[in-house]
């Protein structure tokens, strides 16, 4: 069954003023849709692979045939990463619960985590993502280039930030640190907490 663009769980203007409506609309309907379309094109004629979820494809990326592996990594990663990202966004949700306790215990407290995550995101060269993942039961901040997924490295993302320019350039131009700061105003910590509990 072909992969499809998931609807956003909120309106395109729901994250204003931190992430603007026009960026959200273009990001979702143009960029994410293109990843879906190109993933479906790559999988054409590969019936067994077409039955897998995009996350299952990425977890077993090394077993995907060589001739479509790069396309599945890039466009499947784009589809998976964005589908995950949209669910993480909501205004006015305070951090708490098991994820807050784990951040305090494992990453030196929330303020240090925020600083470390923000620095990694701001300094990531080129296009890519910054993630909070669970690896062997422990939290870790990692980055991936392009649309690579932590799933392909055996790690489970609980929080992710798109730092491709298309995610912020209309509003923030070259001020990526300002975009990263605004991201912390629209994190749905309830969803992050659910992701963390599912991963552990």
Describe the overall structure.
By secondary structure, the chain is mainly alpha-helical. The protein folds into two domains: 21-86, Helix Hairpins (Orthogonal Bundle), CATH 1.10.287.990; 97-199, Iron/manganese superoxide dismutase, C-terminal domain (minor pseudopilin epsh fold). It has nine helices and three strands. Strands 2-1-3 form a three-stranded antiparallel sheet, sandwiched between helices. Strand 1 and strand 2 (138-145) form a beta hairpin. Helix 6 (110-123) runs antiparallel to helix 8. The longest helix has 23 residues, at 21-43. The protein is globular and about 50 Å long. The two termini are 30 Å apart. The model has no long low-confidence stretch (mean pLDDT 97).
| Whole-number tally of structural domains | 2
Task: Count the E strands.
Answer: 3
Give the overall form. Answer: globular
- Which class best fits the helix and strand makeup? mainly alpha
| Cα end-to-end separation | 30 Å
Average of pLDDT: 97
Helix fraction, binned, reads: 40-55%
């Amino acid at each position: 069954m072909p992969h499809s663009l998931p609807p956003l769980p909120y309106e395109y203007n729901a994250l204003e003023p931190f992430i603007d409506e026009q960026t959200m609309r273009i990001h979702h309907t143009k960029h994410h849709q293109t990843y879906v379309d190109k993933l479906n094109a790559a999988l054409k004629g590969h019936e067994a692979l077409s039955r897998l979820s995009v996350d299952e494809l990425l977890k077993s990326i090394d077993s995907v045939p060589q001739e479509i592996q790069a396309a599945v990594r890039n466009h499947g990663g784009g589809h998976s990463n964005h589908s995950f990202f949209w669910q993480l966004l909501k205004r006015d949700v305070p951090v708490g619960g098991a994820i807050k306790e784990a951040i305090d215990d494992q990453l030196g407290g929330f303020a240090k985590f925020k600083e470390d995550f923000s620095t990694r995101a701001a300094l990531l060269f080129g296009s890519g993502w910054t993630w909070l993942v669970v690896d062997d039961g422990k939290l870790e901040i990692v980055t991936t280039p392009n649309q690579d997924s932590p799933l392909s490295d055996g790690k489970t993302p609980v929080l992710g930030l798109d730092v491709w320019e298309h995610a912020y350039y209309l509003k923030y131009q070259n001020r990526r640190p300002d975009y990263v700061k605004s991201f912390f105003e629209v994190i749905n910590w309830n969803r992050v907490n659910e992701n963390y509990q599912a991963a552990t």
